[in-house]
Each structure stands twice: as structure tokens, then as C-alpha cells.
Amino acid sequence: MNVIIKDIREADCISDALILPLCEGESAAPYEEIDALLKGLIRRVISSGEFQGKLNQISLVHTVNMIKPDRILLSGLGKKEELNAEKIRHSGGKAVSYLGGLRFRDISLSLSHLNALRQSPLPFVEGGLLSLYKFKKYRQDKEDAVRMERFTLIGKPRKSFFNSISRLVATVSAVNFARDLINTPANDMTPTVLAKTARGMARGKVSLKVLERKDAEREGMDAYLSVARGSMEPPKFIILKYHGGKGAPIALIGKSITFDSGGISIKPSEGMEKMKYDMAGGAVVLAVIKAAAEMRLPVNLIGVLPATENLPSGSASKPGDIVRSMTGKTVEIISTDAEGRLVLADAIGYVKKFKPRFIIDVATLTGACSVALGNEAIAMMGNDSGLMERLKAAGEEVYERVWQMPLYDEYLDYIKSDVADIKNSGGKTGSLVTAGYFLKEFVGDTPWAHLDIAGTAWTEKDKPYIIKGATGVGVRLLLNFLKETR
């Protein structure tokens, strides 16, 4: 998609459709000039009640050659007093996805009224671009052979707006990159394929290292390797570095279980097909590093993806096994379905060698996250209040909201083992926070935040700018966070 900006009259922009955003109850006055050229057509549509400006309401009007755009799409923003960035994002998603469904190649958006309302047009554009995503790799139908090619923004924005649009396009591209990885079925998204994908990113300021099984053995990553024992697919411990600034790196760790059956502690068969999404954290980390390189963010990043499958077999780890982590701490495996924290424990141990400024891990870690927060918020835990406040603020801005959960010292009692230093599951009680506390035991004094995206990385219903399937949640949050990090 080519996003361009033109300082011309709306009526002079040649396009399949011109989008005109309006708040609920507004008249045609914000677009008085163009309405006059249309001989009052916008006013008549509004006065008839056909279009009221309610949030996500749309109305398509043919211009019959009276102006250069072939059609006008009125797009509802909702009540003016309730207007915010997320509602503008929803309105953009609804409008642009509708026009995409009509297979239009060339659309335009008037910025004038959003500017008059003192609202940034960026969320409208962001929602629109995100709404066009489709995952059709395995479909034979050709209904989407015609794809939208150009999105023209009409107005006179500030100079900084051009850079903002460039960053926005890179961000949306990264989100869609993550969605593609997550939506790909596990037979085509193995640890080896994930490593190959990372290798394709290794150029310029991005470097790659992949630890094979023997390398991981030499590093003492028995916790990570215990998860890989049941699969014939070789594990790949993927390390990407982005060299964009000075000083200590920021460590990003993404859980990368390319398929999670639960191992010997096998999951119910219903819904297990969605367990291809258990590498969503890794996809987020890859996408963030990809976008950081494109945006030339002035930071150093190290991204770690401890990739493997978790399957049952004669060689799989068993409940009751004890493994030693890279840090030397021993872990009693209570449930092989609590595997994510095992791979993350060794990933944390690995990145600590680089003395990072802080560690952020992103993981579809617990089913309890969905029980606690539904599909509306990311569960966040950590040991550094300043880091968590910054992540929370970054998430609010892009509406990838986080909710901080406690890590009381008493939770250590839940995961104490009689035969090892720690056990990987304390049972159902407090299982969301005990999973976080388990990771805390490996972090030590390094500033750290844990983002559990189990409830938000996948959606079962279409939303105005996110269709059913992988959401790519976490990409926009982290890029917004890194944008303000120096």
C-alpha cells in the first residue's frame, strides 16, 4: 500500500472513493465546499437520517462526475464529546475495510475535519491499514486478486506528519508480518522455518545467531531442551541483535513454541488446532526488530526466540522429571503443559550474559490470563515499577492495554518443590501470577517486565481493524515504547 499526502482540494483528488469523517449529529458544514459542488447531496443524506454519524456507521454516495472522486464515503466517528484515538481507529478500520471489500484500488481521506476537531488523523489511517489484512495463503479463491494500491491523505499537515506516516506504515507492516507467522499452521511454521525467517532479516544492522541442540546443551539449557524432547523437529534457539544505538541492549524474549500439545500432560483435543499461536511472542519479537531496523530506532536490541515444539512421545519429558536451568536452578516438572516458563527461564539466563538495560518477555503463557482478563488486556508483571509504568502508557496510546498483576513474595510458596529448587506449576490457584513469579526467580536484579498475551494474541471474532485469527498484539505496544526510549 502506497500512502501519500497531497495538499489539494478534496474535490480534485482522483480516487475510487473519498472518505469524509463526521461526528454524530453533525451537519454537512465541515465539508461545505464539496457539498456545494455536489449540489447538497451530503446535506440530503444527513437530513434524511440515512447517515447520522454514529460510530462505525458508513454511507456510500456516488458523485456522478460532479467532482473528481467517483464516490463519497461518509464515516461515523460517534459522539464528539466521546471522541478518542481508539474510536477514530475503529472508524478508519470500518471505512477502509468496507472499501477494500468493494475491491477499490485507490481511496482518499480528507484530513480537514479531524484537524479541526484537534484530533490526529494517524489513528484513522492506522485502523484503515490494519483492517486490510487477510490471510489467504492456503485458499484457492481469487476474490482478493484486486488489492488496494494507494491511500491519499488530503490536507496540509505539519512537517512531522510525514515522518509519522512513514513510521506508521512500517508498524502496520510489522504487525501483519507477525500475524502471517502466527496464522501459518505448525506443519509449515516449525522451529527451522522460524529460524529461516529470522535469517532473512539478518542484514545491515541486524545480526543473527542460532544455537542448535548441541550448542544449547553446551550452554546448560536443560530446561529449554526438556520441552523439545518429545518432538522430531530440531529445536532452534534464535538470537537476533539490532545495533541502532549506544550502550547496553534492551532484551526482548518471545515464547516460541511452534505447536503446543501440552506434551505428556496433553491438552483437550477441542481447540488444540489454535495451539499454532503459541509462538506469538516470538513473532512479536521478530516483527519489532524488523520494524526497528526499518525505522532506524536509536536503540540496541537483542531478541531471543527459544523455539521448539511441545509434543508427547516415548522420549518426552514426564511429570516428576527434574531439570537444571542455565542459571543452575533446578526445576521439578509438575506439568509438561507449563512448558513456556521452562523455555523462558533459559532464555532469561542467556540474555543476562549481555547485561541488558532491562528484559521484556512476551508470551502466550497461561490459560489463566484469559480467565482473569478475558480478551481485552495483556497481563503484566515485573520487578521494576518505572519500566511497567512506561509500558502501560505505551499500551494505552495504541489501545494494546496492559493490566498489572501482583508478584507478592508469598507466591513463592506456591511453587516450592520438595525435591528441587522450584517447580514449574503450583496448580490452578493463582496460576497466572505464579507463572510470572516462576520467571522472576530467574531474572534476579535485572529490571524486567513480563507480558502475558495469551488472552489477546488471538481473536475469535472480527473487530473493526482486526479480523478473526492472529492479532499481532504487542508489536504496536513495544514499538511505541521503544520510540520513546533512548
Number of β-strand runs:
20
Could you state the CATH homologous superfamily of the largest domain? Zn peptidases
Compute the average pLDDT.
96
> How would a textbook summarize the main sheet?
9 strands, mixed
CATH class of the largest domain: Alpha Beta
Number of domains: 2
Question: Which radius of gyration do the C-alpha atoms yield?
Answer: 24 Å
- Percentage of helical residues? 25-40%
The total of helices stands at 15
Distance between the termini: 30 Å
CATH architecture of the largest domain: 3-Layer(aba) Sandwich
Class from secondary-structure proportions: alpha/beta
Topology (elements, then pairings):
Layout: E1 2-6, E2 17-22, H1 32-37, H2 41-47, E3 58-62, E4 71-76, H3 85-101, E5 106-110, H4 112-116, H5 122-131, E6 150-154, H6 160-183, H7 191-199, E7 206-211, H8 213-219, H9 222-228, E8 236-243, E9 250-254, E10 256-260, H10 280-295, E11 300-310, E12 322-324, E13 330-332, H11 340-351, E14 358-363, H12 367-373, E15 378-382, H13 385-398, E16 402-404, E17 422-423, H14 431-443, E18 448-452, E19 458-459, E20 469-470, H15 475-483
Describe this structure in words.
By secondary structure, the chain is α/β, with parallel strands linked by helices. The chain folds into 2 domains: 2-157, Leucine Aminopeptidase, subunit E, domain 1 (3-Layer(aba) Sandwich); 172-483, Zn peptidases (Aminopeptidase). The chain is built from 15 helices and 20 strands. The chain has helices spanning 32-37, 41-47, 85-101, 112-116, 122-131, 160-183, 191-199, 213-219, 222-228, 280-295, 340-351, 367-373, 385-398, 431-443, 475-483; strands at 2-6, 17-22, 58-62, 71-76, 106-110, 150-154, 206-211, 236-243, 250-254, 256-260, 300-310, 322-324, 330-332, 358-363, 378-382, 402-404, 422-423, 448-452, 458-459, 469-470. Strands 7, 8, 9, 10, 11, 14, 15, 16 and 18 form a 9-stranded mixed sheet that branches. Strand 15, helix 13 (385-398) and strand 16 (402-404) form a beta-alpha-beta unit. The radius of gyration is 24 Å and the shape is elongated. The two termini are 30 Å apart.
